[in-house]
Design a protein that fits this description.
CATH superfamily of the largest domain: MFS general substrate transporter like domains
Distance between the termini: 58 Å
CATH class of the largest domain: Mainly Alpha
Number of helices: 20
Strand content: 5-15%
Structural class: alpha+beta
Radius of gyration: 29 Å
Order of helices and strands: HHHHHHHHHHHHHHHEEEEHEEEHHHH
Number of strands: 7
Shape: elongated
Helix content: 55-70%
Oligomer: single chain
């Protein structure tokens, strides 16, 4: 074979690799869009009175497809390492179309539950696609390639954005509500067509040495704590992304009284950037290092969640009052002052802080344009003329009122920033895997994906119980803030330990400064 032929072959392989990446990404996008369907559909059915499910029941129905997709990521990741991504993902697409189609016949809670378990296998497509994509690219391009593949997460945004509009069109804006049943049928048809396309246009390829590995050999990497640390990061970054893609729809409907269609569009502001920007996260991880990217991702995420914790509120609270400086008799009381005559015949005048105007007008409330919180404090008399008061007895009680609108557009902006950094972080996590486990991407990627998928299942359920117990929709951000802090602290401690072990001189120089 001549050098020209080698160059030609190399070019052909490159073209084939990018074609595989493109088809793989498209298939993953379709799977992810189907996987997230319950977030919109269940909210729509409850909002239109078709079913009467409370928040915790909705959390289970929204989360159950995610549970299936999480649990089976590891076995299907192993199957991909053994049999190849072409056959595994192609057959998966055809299989999940069946339970997706069956959703159209569901009428009871448990029927929706069972169908969700079935089409939840869509979520395993990530572990399959990661393993299949990584073997087509050299190490220095894997971060970018896996980031581009991960952009298929945008399928969640496509469902959040398009499914509510499609439901309104199918049902004539709720006039023919039973026509919702056409939605899962349409998803099923798209899954079948995508499966046929995938099988017809992709090529089989296996990781090096895969054919001779036993199951025990394949599972050996799971003994390393590093794998589970990556899994915790992904529990938040991917699990949080999945849960928000579904949870933000009922969040907007209930907290901001939007329509389901508008809620879906606003929820897409979180999920679409998270999916699309994942490719940028892969490129950044290749260029500046995945650890550096993770520091920024977790830091920004924590800041966003802390800001989002503050709920809408209209608080009336005790404020700073006025106490008598000496005993005596109250001789005058007005809105502006209180006069007390002391036992020695002197009169002490206590000026009151008066209430001036309204804290917020009805017009401002209705427009919903307030960004910063507003507060007002004043004092009201707590005594009457002729009353005897002792030293330090309360003369005027303080009243403080705080109003915070939690502006919907500021909320959406913070949500969008959070979604974007989550997308970057997801790519950074998976950049670590082929670096540390180049011949076990399917297994390690599978277990990390399992933990991420479990996050997508567990988080909506936790959100539902937190909402029921606290009455606050913002309780989900409290949970995320704690989870992010744990990830950030654990990562920092591990990096400090690695630095002490691998470069003690450098570590001590850094500590000295």
């Amino acid at each position: 074979m001549t050098e020209d032929n080698k160059d030609e072959l190399s070019s052909a392989e490159k073209r084939q690799a990018w074609w595989i990446l493109g088809v793989n990404t498209f298939a993953f996008t379709v799977c992810f869009a189907a996987w997230m369907m319950n977030g919109v559909l269940i909210t729509y059915l409850v909002d239109n009175g078709v079913h009467d499910w409370d928040p915790s029941e909705m959390g289970w129905l929204i989360g159950i497809p995610v549970l299936t997709g999480a649990i089976f990521r590891l076995p299907l990741g192993i199957a991909t390492d053994k049999y190849g991504g072409r056959i595994v993902l192609g057959l998966l697409l055809l299989f999940v179309a069946v339970p997706m189609y069956m959703v159209s016949f569901c009428d009871s809670y448990w029927q929706f539950f069972a169908a969700g378990l079935g089409f939840g296998f869509c979520g395993t497509s990530f572990a399959i696609g990661i393993a299949y994509t990584s073997i087509w690219f050299p190490k220095h391009q894997q971060g970018t390639a896996l980031g581009i593949f991960g952009a298929g997460n945008a399928g969640a945004g496509l469902t959040s954005l398009g499914a509510p509009q499609l439901l309104n069109w199918l049902t004539d804006n709720g006039q023919n509500i039973e026509n919702w049943r056409y939605l899962p049928k349409m998803y099923a048809v798209i899954l079948v067509l995508t499966g046929l396309l995938f099988l017809a246009t992709t090529t089989k390829r296996l990781p090096l040495g895969s054919a001779t590995k036993t199951l025990i050999d394949r599972l050996k990497p799971l003994k390393e704590i590093r794998v589970w640390r990556f899994g915790l990061y992904y529990f938040f970054l991917f699990g949080g992304f999945v849960s928000l893609a579904q949870w933000l729809v009922p969040y907007y409907v209930n907290a901001y009284s939007t329509t389901v269609a508008l809620a879906g569009a606003l929820a897409a502001c979180n999920s679409l950037p998270s999916g699309v920007i994942r490719a940028v996260g892969g490129w950044m991880s290749d260029k500046i290092g995945a650890r550096t990217v993770m520091y920024w991702v977790l830091g920004v995420s924590l800041a966003c969640c802390i800001l989002l914790i503050v709920p809408q509120m209209d608080i009336h609270s005790p404020g700073s009052g006025i106490m008598a400086k000496a005993p005596g008799e109250v001789v005058a009381v007005s809105e502006a002052k209180i006069v007390v005559e002391t036992k020695d015949g002197q009169q002490r005048t206590y000026e009151l802080k008066r209430k001036e105007g309204e804290l917020v007008t009805e017009e401002e409330r209705n427009k919903g344009v307030l960004i910063l919180p507003r507060s007002m404090a004043w004092q009201e008399p707590a005594v009457e003329v002729g009353q005897q008061v002792g030293k330090k007895e309360l003369l005027a009680r303080g009243i403080t009122r705080i109003f915070f609108q939690a502006n919907i557009w500021v909320f959406t902006l913070l949500s969008m920033i959070l979604g974007a950094v989550m997308g970057i972080g997801k790519a950074a996590v998976y950049k670590h895997i082929p670096d540390y486990f180049p011949n076990d991407v399917g297994v390690v990627g599978g277990i990390v994906g399992v933990l991420g998928g479990l996050g997508g299942f567990i988080c909506p359920v936790i959100f539902g119980y937190l909402l029921r117990s606290t009455g606050l929709w913002t309780s989900c951000w409290m949970f995320f803030a704690v989870l992010i802090a744990v990830c950030l602290i654990w990562m920092h401690l591990v990096i400090q330990k690695m630095l002490r072990e691998k470069a003690p001189d450098l570590y001590h120089r850094i500590e000295d400064h």
